[in-house]
Amino acid sequence: MAFKLTRRTFLQSAALAAMSAPLAKIAYAESTLAPAALEAKGTFADETVCGGICEMCFWRCQIIGKKRGDRLVKLEGNPKSIDNGAAICARGNAGIQMLYDPDRLKYPLKNTGERGKPVWKRISWDEAFAEIGEKLGAAIKKYGAHGLCMFPHGASAKYPMQFFDNIVGTPNISEASFFQCRGVRDTAYMSSTSIPPNESVDMANAKVIFLLGSHLGENIHVSHIKNYIQGLQNGAKLIVVDPRYSAAAAKSDVWLAIKPGTDTAFLLAMINYLIEKKKYQADFVENHTAGLDELTVGVREWTLARAAAECDLPAEKIQLVADMLAENAPNVSLHPGRHVSWYGNDFQRQRALACLTALLGAYYVRGGWCPGKAPKVEEIGWAKSEHDEKFDLNIKEDGKRKYPFSPPGTPTDLIRDTAISGNPYPIKACVIWGQNPIQTIPDQEKTKNMLKQMDFVLCVDIQPTDITMWADILLPQASYLERYDLIKTGVQWNLADKHQQYIAARMPLSPPLFERKDQVFITNAIAKALGHGDKIPAESLEQLVDKSLAAAGLSLSQLKKEDGIHIQDGKDPFVIPEDFEVLLFNEEIADAGFPGVPTYIPVPQPPPGFARLVYGRVQVHTFNRTQNNAWLHQEMPVNPLWINDETAAKLGLKDGDTVGFVNQDGVKSPTTTIVKATPGIRKDVVYMAHGYGSKNPLLTVGVGAGVDDTQLISKASVDPESGTHGMRNNFVQLIKDGKTLDIPA
Amino acid sequence: MPTIKMDSKILPILYRFCGQALRYPDSGWPMADLQTRFQEILTIVKADEEGQELSRFFAAEKEESILETLQIEYTRLFINSYGGVVAPLYASVYIDGILWGAFSETIRERYLRSGYSPDDTNEPPDHLATQLEFLALLHESGRPTEAEQFLAQSFRPWFSRFYQRFSAGNPHIFYRVLVELIDYLTLEEEP
Amino acid sequence: MQYGMIIDLDRCVGCHACVIACKAEWDVPTEFARNWVRHLGPAKIGEEMAMSYYVGLCNHCADPVCVTDCPGEPLEVTFSNPKTGEKKTATVPATWKDPIDGTVQIDKSRCIGCGACIEACPYHARYLNPALIDAIGSDGKADKCTYCKPRFEQGLPPACVQTCITGARIFGDLDDPASEVAQYVKKGAVGLEAKGGNLGPNSRYFGKKKDMDLLFSTSTPELAGLEKAGRRALMAKIMQPAMKAAGELTVLGLVGAAAVKALADKE
Fold this sequence. Notes:
The complex is a heterotrimer. By secondary structure, chain B is an all-alpha fold. Chain B has one domain: TorD-like, CATH 1.10.3480.10. Chain B has 9 helices and no strands. Chain C has a 4-stranded mixed β-sheet, with helices on one face. A two-stranded antiparallel ribbon of chain C has the order 2-3. A two-stranded antiparallel ribbon of chain C has the order 4-5. Chain C is globular, with a radius of gyration of 20 Å. The N and C termini of chain C lie far apart (45 Å). Chains A and B meet through helix 1, helix 2 and strand 5 of A and helix 4, helix 6, helix 8 and helix 9 of B.
């Protein structure tokens, strides 16, 4: 630009001493950038703030902050914790970068452009609530409460989810943690043991640890990993069943590189072998199971030889594993898994795992499956109400449930398909709270088509994830470091240690920056805008937490006095409830038209020239949520493609080569990643970490880094019992220098 | 080391003026006054082309749509934008690559040493407008040397990077003029 | 007394908590690090499959090659043993091996950022921190792991040790036979000695044979080209009087240092 006048003249100040040495001498006589700044101070002398609970992932380690002035400089594990202790993982440590990420959402935004290609305008909270009230109100008035759907995730979404579920009254809520992750595990175990299993295996005191496709060691949940490593240190034998030489496999005594999708056959063969050879825990089976006869008949066909052929494993290895488990029963940890929505045959596999655990008598024993006895706090929230079943998409015309063993909420595709077709009714408003459905739900085009036909889309998040590009109104939420929140309860990390319980509530380590608000503030204002102000259960998040704590005889002020964590005496967990029973045969499942004993259902195989795409995790990321974290990005900037080294050699690929992908439906990856050629993966599989390749340019660190595996998962295999999404029946070819490479068989 | 002595009365007023113009434009914003002052300033510095461009913008649209245009542009330039935010208004973004980094702390300590403390704990202390206000305060309290020192050691190192990113982001004429003016008022002039 | 660190690969899960905690504790710029985790394999070690981690940091070597050529202004420093009260005085340049606790340290205020020590370290454990600038070092200052000396002097564990989720990092006095680190050495924990070198690294590794084989076969460094480091140090030494003079001439150290650098570049 041309300012054609010197500033001096402009300021009408003729007396300007140009480059005056004496003046400079005065100006710089005292250096204010003190030399002390050269040596970093360290954080140990800084002020400590207690009461944090981490949410870089969902394990919820208890943390403290180190504060210098108003700035939080470091996060550490709360030394008082009997769960994670003073330790936290890389992501926990990098929470500082999340808090101060310049790309994070700061003010309410209104999309003045189109969905998917937003043009943002900052608006006030009042304007935002007025608009939400008007648009959501109009949709509910026109289409009914069921004309609204919700995709929530995480601690901050619980309160609003209850509001939309109980008060607004929509049944159309789908949580990724259920329908794309662990829901099928929970319902399969509930159909077997009546209890969702979580990951309650006492690995620290096990003689054998059995992991089926687990990402332990790549999925870092601190106290769980402590438990696992303690078990290995104590001499537990580790069995890992995985087509890939995973971080867990690297520590294993036995690694079985199973053919993907055949896990159930493998489990059934072990069940059959244990029954045939009478190597099961007879007392436990007699006292705590039902349906052994049906199970015996149901698995009879699964000889070791047949499973060996199906699973592409040596029969003697399967026998070896079965014997290791039998010989060390009942002190064996058969891990129930966490993300288990794999192939669309997952309900039966998880049932098989639960039944095998029963044959080994490994419930409520040292080293087996055993939940610690955690203290109880009350759940304060919106008043409960019943839905009109008429609008429940999971209920068929004959009154039966389409997916009888669905986790709570509505299976994702029932919502998406209904919204797109308008049949049986229109779904025209969408609330997305803390979830990024673009990267959690397979078939991204379907999600986009669902959103395109909406009258109104509201997103609430801490950062501009890919889904937020589709919002009409985008609200900035206070992160876990800036708000009060959920109460975490539990027991000491090693069940063999002195029995203790703890209660910790999330308390802010920093005030919310900019105009970020917490979920109670936002939900209450929406409630008022929709005319439900009279039903508000708590005026603030702080009050909500305080009320919940009161049930346990605690308060926030008391917790603060106790450095953020209340610890009390615990109870012996190794006591089996008298009425505990595992249904080896489940009549209810049979009546619903599904196999009542665990059954293997084969999965689709890759077409010639393709390999199966499986995905997993890396130690430094929680899927897509942490991709924009500069520190974590620095550690693992892309998600390398694992490919068998012999296959790679045949394709002329070497480590570090750049490749893209095309899948069985012709979906191409818009970005590329690098090759990691290794003998540690089967030839019929390629692997990459999930969560990379963000599309939203607002995420200036994570955008376009690596490949988004979810985009390549255009085919969702819906599990028939649960309605959850199996995502590992997708197949890819590689693209190198514009050429598509056939992957040899 | 080139340095300058500036009119101690008009300069702080200009700093404060620019600081105000950097606030998010809402309905309470002194739009008409801002427009007039900017036009006058552009006339004095003989930036005729820019003056014409600015007056064309203000003449072409209704007040409401002028405001909305500026709001969208402000959001795009300084807050969040599809395509990547152009240039956040916080110093430590350019020095530490993060909001409220160590450099924010350095800036805050500078305020404290001169006897000022940021009163909003929800906002990092190193916002451009806050720094301009600090410069104004230093001049108003008869400490031009301290202001010069702050400019050279703290302000210019980050502002020049901000300025580059901002200029590369195809900014709207209103913000172009504003940032240009700030640059002009804080730049060390060649002797 | 010789402080050392053990990395127990059997416990390590490669989670990088150590790297990030160090970054936060010591204001390490995002693109640099005082310690690192590299993922090794899966690869065949003989007939076995192996995958492990190179968990690296400064080795605080018994005979460090990084301190010998430092052209930093020598200074008489008194070192003391907090346990025994023993004192030792030595004249040291800007980087040295502590005669009491055996750690290798840097005095940033005397470091001129010449890069000789960075060049000399075969482990690449040092880097030039561009955020640290003053009159005598306008390109930045050498920075590296201190074993968290300011923390251990307060009785605190190093930041990486405190945050290690599985207890895979163990810190202590290798000369004290009762210490856990000494016990590990007895069990066979070894340092990653550079090829043909005799540096005596005091950060040591312990693990299954196949994991140790993988680590040593992939991560054993060559000795650095010490001539190059020496030349760099020598050059800096020659420039030093000019730099000092310039420093006295100008009140603005930055300009002075830049001028000297320009002069050096010309030559």
